[in-house]
Write a structure and sequence with these properties.
Strand content: 15-25%
Shape: elongated
Order of helices and strands: HHEEEHHHE
Largest sheet: 4 strands, antiparallel
Radius of gyration: 19 Å
Length: 140
């Protein structure tokens, strides 16, 4: 009965606010809710794709998600997002994200590895356990 009332309260909260975040923060913690992994999705990062001369040919936009094993690490990282974005953008602007054979496209493994390295520098012990590419799209 208590569980049904709790679910009804959550539905009413969602119906009146239309926000999933409000649901998550107002819901009482259940036993399995504290288990990870926890994900923090970032706004897309702009990545310049350059010609051999160094001039910018076009931009790609890369949406990343960080995976954490603890909620506290995720919360800390959310506060540090401006510094993380800066470190990520510096790396992505300074080094190519493409395979050496450019016809193969984006080197996802290398990008994830480099960004995880920078996340560890910025966040220290609160670094994510993994980085995931959520979406890639081409700009002008």
């Amino acid at each position: 009965m208590v569980r049904i009332l709790g679910v009804m309260a959550l539905v009413m909260c969602f119906w009146t606010t239309g926000s999933v975040d409000v649901l998550a923060s107002s819901a009482p913690a259940e036993e399995g809710a504290a288990d990870g992994p926890f994900y923090l999705e970032m706004d897309p990062l702009s990545v310049p794709i350059r010609k051999k001369s160094g001039a910018i040919k076009y931009y790609m936009f890369l949406a990343m998600s960080m995976e954490f094993d603890e909620q506290d690490k995720k919360s800390y990282s959310r506060k540090m997002l401006p510094r993380l974005r800066d470190a990520f953008l510096q790396d992505l602007s300074g080094h190519s994200v493409l395979h050496k054979d450019k016809s193969r496209g984006l080197d996802f493994a290398q990008v994830r590895k480099r960004l995880l390295k920078h996340a560890k520098k910025v966040l220290g012990k609160n670094a994510p356990t993994s980085m995931h590419v959520v979406k890639v799209f081409k700009g002008n």
